[in-house]
């Protein structure tokens, strides 16, 4: 998860320095640090915020970056007010007071992971995490966290409230899989389609996109091309289980930007592993000479989709990018 930290004072800068120093020691990517003040210099490790704060925050939301404000909660609330849309897609937002005493997740605590990130930050700062989501406060089951952790798509979002309310009341939550239905109605059913009585329908994410791309390909064009291919195939980004590629392309900024924005994990394979994929794949001598295997997108999609995967769209070639789509066997 890429993180952007914004502060307004010297104390705020010191807090961000502590966070980033710990991140670097533990191999975690540090937050991009910005200072939003005319009176506080942007010294080493910090950039001066040039845009108005609300415009800058909007750009961060468009990239689905986690936002960490070190300062007053009111500043953060006003800055994000025009960006808040959907609890399942909003960026995670955290506020740390100027003294580094409290760490408060204020948006996207579950689906965006703000609650977990706040607890991690608090442990680094020896601060108090102030988590306010009802399920966490009451130690209750969280349906949206369950869905995110198990890579399940939420088909009826209103059902989250129904299940969460029951869990907070201390009542049992029943979960069923369509192939093994209980005799009585259940709270959550995991299925691709069903007409049984339920409160919340969670569906396995069905597709894997395989990707190959030119080095340093522009992020906007990569996103635009992938979305156009998915639209043509009638596939929603929420139904993508993973994006798959070869290991030498895993850290391409355009791929990582797309994966972060749509909260899709990236799976990568060495060339020798891709070569062992079974199927009838397109072949390119140029790709073979470049990365050591004759096809990346199709082979990666099939391998990441798992046993009995079906290649539903063979290699589609754009400008500096190739895309293939495989369907997972989820029955």
What does the secondary structure layout of this molecule look like, with pairings?
Blueprint lengths: L2 E5 L2 H16 L6 E4 L11 E2 L4 H10 L3 E5 L2 H8 L12 E4 L5 E6 L6 H12 L2 E2 L4 H4 L5 H7 L2 E3 L3 H11 L6 E3 L10 E3 L9 E5 L2 E7 L5 H15 L6 E7 L6 H10 L3 E4 L1 H4 L10 H7 L5 H9 L4 E8 L3 E7 L4
Parallel strand pairs: 1-2, 1-4, 2-3, 4-5, 6-7, 9-10, 10-11, 12-13, 13-14
Antiparallel strand pairs: 5-6, 8-11, 12-16, 15-16
Helix pairs in contact: 8-9
Task: Please tell me about this protein's structure.
The protein has 331 residues and is α/β, with parallel strands linked by helices. The protein folds into three domains: 3-132, Rossmann fold; 143-204, 3-Layer(aba) Sandwich (Udp-n-acetylmuramoylalanyl-d-glutamate--2,6- Diaminopimelate Ligase, Chain: A, domain 1); 207-327, 2-Layer Sandwich (Nucleotidyltransferase, domain 5), CATH 3.30.420.180. It is 34% helix and 23% strand. The chain is built from twelve helices and 16 strands. The chain has helices at residues 10-25, 53-62, 73-80, 114-125, 134-137, 143-149, 158-168, 219-233, 253-262, 271-274, 285-291, 297-305, and strands spanning 3-7, 32-35, 47-48, 66-70, 93-96, 102-107, 128-129, 152-154, 175-177, 188-190, 200-204, 207-213, 240-246, 266-269, 310-317, 321-327. The strands form three sheets. Strands 3-2-1-4-5-6-7 form a seven-stranded mixed beta sheet, with helices on both faces. A five-stranded mixed beta sheet has the order 14-13-12-16-15. β4, α3 (73-80) and β5 (93-96) form a beta-alpha-beta unit. It is globular, with a radius of gyration of 22 Å.
């Amino acid at each position: 998860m890429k993180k952007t930290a914004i502060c307004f004072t010297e104390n705020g800068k010191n807090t961000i320095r502590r966070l980033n120093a710990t991140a670097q020691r533990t191999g975690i990517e540090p937050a991009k640090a910005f200072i939003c003040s005319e009176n506080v210099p942007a010294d080493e490790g910090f950039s001066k915020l040039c845009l108005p704060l609300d415009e800058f925050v909007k750009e961060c939301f468009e990239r689905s970056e986690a936002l960490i404000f070190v300062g007053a909660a009111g500043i953060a609330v006003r800055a994000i007010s025009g960006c808040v849309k959907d609890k399942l897609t909003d960026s995670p937002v955290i506020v740390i007071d100027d003294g580094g005493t409290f760490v408060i997740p204020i948006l996207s605590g579950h689906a965006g992971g703000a609650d977990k990130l706040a607890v991690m930050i608090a442990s680094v700062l020896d601060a108090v995490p102030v988590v306010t989501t009802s399920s966490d406060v009451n130690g209750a089951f969280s349906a949206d966290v369950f869905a995110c952790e198990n890579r399940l798509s939420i088909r009826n979002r209103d059902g989250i409230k129904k299940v969460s309310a029951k869990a907070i009341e201390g009542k049992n939550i029943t979960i069923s899989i369509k192939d093994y239905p209980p005799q009585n109605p259940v709270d959550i059913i995991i299925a691709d389609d069903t007409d049984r009585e339920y409160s919340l329908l969670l569906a396995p994410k069905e597709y894997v996109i395989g990707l190959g791309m030119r080095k340093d390909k522009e992020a906007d064009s990569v996103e635009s091309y992938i979305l156009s291919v998915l639209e043509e195939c009638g596939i929603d980004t929420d139904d993508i289980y993973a994006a798959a590629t070869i290991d030498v392309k895993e850290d391409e900024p355009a791929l990582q930007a797309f994966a972060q924005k749509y909260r899709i994990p990236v799976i990568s394979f060495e060339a020798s592993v891709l070569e062992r994929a079974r199927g009838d794949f397109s072949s390119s001598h140029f790709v073979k000479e470049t990365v050591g295997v004759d096809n990346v997108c199709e082979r990666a999609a099939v391998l990441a989709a798992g046993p009995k995967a079906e290649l539903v769209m063979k290699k589609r070639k754009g400008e500096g990018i190739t895309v293939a789509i495989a369907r997972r066997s989820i029955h």
